[in-house]
Amino acid sequence: MKSYILEFRQLLLTLAAVFAFTSLVMLIAGAPPFAAYYHIIKGSLGSWNKFSHVIKAWIPLTLCGCGLLFTFRIGLWNIGVEGQVMMGAVFTTALLRFGVESNATVAFLGISLLAGMLGGAIWALIAGFLKTRGGVNEIFAGLGLNFVAQGIILWLIFGPWRRPGVASMSGTETFPVSLWMPLLEAQRLSPVALVTVMVALVISGLLLRYTRVGLNLKAIGGNPNAAYLFGLKPGRFMLLAMIFAGGFAGLAGSLQVSGVYHRLIPAISSNYGYLALLVVMLSNYNIWLVPPVAFFFACLNVGSIQLPMVLQLDSSLSGVIQGALVLATLGVHAWRQRWAEIGEREKNTGVKRD
Amino acid sequence: MIELNLTTLFAGVVAGAAPIVLAATGETITEKAGLINLSLDGSILLSAMAAFAVAYETHSLTMGFAAGAAVGALVAATVAVFSIYLGQNQVAVGFVLTLMTRDLAYFIGNPYSRLQGPQVSPLAIPGLNEIPFFGDVFFTHNIPIYFSLFIIGFSWWYIYRTPLGLKLRSVGEHPRASYARGINPQRLQLLYAICGGLLVGLAGATFSLATKPGWGRPQGAEGTGWICLALVIFGGWHPVKAAAGAYLFSFLQVIGICLALVIFGGWHPVKAAAGAYLFSFLQVIGISLQEWLPSVPSQVFQVAPFPLMIFTLLIMSFAQKESVLRWAEDKARIKSLLGFFSGMAPASLGKPYRPD
Question: What's the pTM?
C-alpha cells in the first residue's frame, strides 16, 4: 500500500514538473498555456472522429514499441526504427502495386503485411550486421539508414512510382479501394490493424517473459561477457532482436500504407519510430505500460495538430511535452533512488559493510 | 578555369565548415572528458533559433552569439547533470534532448521564421588578406569563421600541451586514478560538458547568423549534429583530425563532380585523400544518378552524407581490427594509412564515475 502512495507521489511530482516546464515554454513563446492544453484535449478526445485519429496514431506507436522492447532488452539502441517503418511501407507498396491488376486482392493484402515485416527486418539486419560484424555503433548505423530510407522513398515517389502526369510531394497514386485494408465505416479504422496490434502485444509479452529467447536477450543485455562465457553468442542474439524490432516496425509501416494512407507518401513514418523510443523509455521497458503510454502520446500528437489553426502555435508543442515527460520521469526516479540510498546508509551507520 | 575558381572554392569550404568545426571540436572536448553529449543535432538547432531570435530582438549580434552559446551550454549541462549526478543513462538523456530541443526550437521559433534579421558582415584582416591564395582563403571571412580556425589550434594546445588538458584527459581515461591524484572527476566532467556545449551553441549561432542566415522550419542545419558526432569518431577523438574531417566534409559539399576530379590529381595531403576518395566516389554516384533522373528532387541527394558517415565509421572500425593490422604489418604505406584512421576512444567514455 505504501509503495502505491510513493508511486502516486512520484507521478504527481513528475506531472507538476512537466506542467511547470511546458507552461514556462509557452510563456516564453507568448502563448496562453491553458488554452493550449484545452485545445490539445479537445482535439484528441473531443469527438469520436478525433478519437479514431488517436487510435490510428496509437497503432504504429504500439507496434514499434513492441519491437523496441526486444532491442532494449539486449541493450541495443535501435534508432533505426524510423527507417524500418519506412522500408516496411516501401515493401508493402511495391507488393500492392502488383495487386492493382489482379482479382485476388485479399491475398495481396495478407501478403503485404508479410512484405512489410520483411522490409523492416532487412533494414534492421543491415544495421545489425554493421554493429556485429562492422563494429559500427548501432546509433550511427540506424540513423544513417533512416536518412537513406527517406531518400529511397523520395526517389521512388518522384522517380519510378511517380503519379502519371505530375510527380508531387503528395505521394504515389492512391490504390483502388479493393486494395484497402477493410475499414469500419463510421470511424475509418481498420479492424485488421487493431487485431494485429493485440497479437503483437501478446506475442512480444509471451516471448520476452516466458521463453528461452527472452531470457537469453535479458542475460546478454545484462552482461554480454558473462553470457558469452555461458555459451550464448551475443552477436547472433543481437541480430535476432534486430529482426524482431524491424519486423514489428515494418508491420507498422505496412499498415500505414494499406490501412491509413492507401499510398506511399514522403512522411509515411510520421516520426512514430523516434516517438516509440520515448514511449518505451517512459514505460520503463515494461510491455504492459507501452499501450497506455503510447495512447497518451498519440493524444498529444493528434491534439496538437489543432494548434496552428486555433492559436497560431507550432504543432511541435507535443514533442516538447513528450520530451519533458521522459526527462522529468528519469529525474524524479533518480532523486527517489538517491533518497533511498541515503536512507539506507543512515540505517546502516555503524554497521561495517564492504 | 579550375585554377581561377580554386581560391573561391577553398574560401567557401573554410566558411561552410565553420559551424561543423565548432561543434565537432566542442564535442571532442566533452568526449575527451569521458561524457557523450548525444543531443548535438537538437541543441545546434535550438541555439541557432535562440541566437537569431535574440539578435533580431536586441539588434545586437554579440547578444545573439551569447544567447546561442548559453543555450548550448544549458543543454550540455542537462545531459551532464543527469548522467554524472543522477546516474541516468547518458545516451538515453541525450537522445530525448535531441528530439525535445528540436521541437522546442520549432515551437518557440515559429514567430521568427522567414524574417529578415541581422547577420554577420565580412571583415577582412588587413595585411594578412594580401597574401596570395592563403589570404583569400583564410582571411577574408567574418569573426565566427576566424574563431573556428583559432579554436582548432587552441583546443589542440589546451588538450595536449597544458597541465589542465592533462587533467581533462585523465578524467576521460581513468577517473578513479585521477580522483586518487586529487582531481574531482565529476566536477571536471560537468565543466568540460559545459565548455563543449558553449562551442556547440556557437556553432548553432554561426548557422543562423552567418552560414545560413535566418530561421525557418526546416532551418537547413538538420542532421549536422549527427555528422559532427560521427566526425569526432572519424577524428579519433583528436581535435585537429576532427576539424580536418569537417573541412573534408564541407569540401565535398561545396564541390561538384568536375572539381572532384581535382582531388584525383594527387596534390592533396595523403591523410585527407584517403577519406576524400571514398567520399567523392559516393558523391559521384549520387551525381550521375541525378543526371539520369533529372526529375528527382534534390532532397534525395541531401542524404548522401549519411551513407558516407556509415562508410567512414566502417572503415575506421576495420582499420583497427587486429587481423587487418597484422596483414598490414610489412606494408609501410598501408600501415601509415591505417595509422591515420586509428584513434582510441577515451577509455572511460560513456561510463560515468561513481564515487564510493
Answer: 0.88
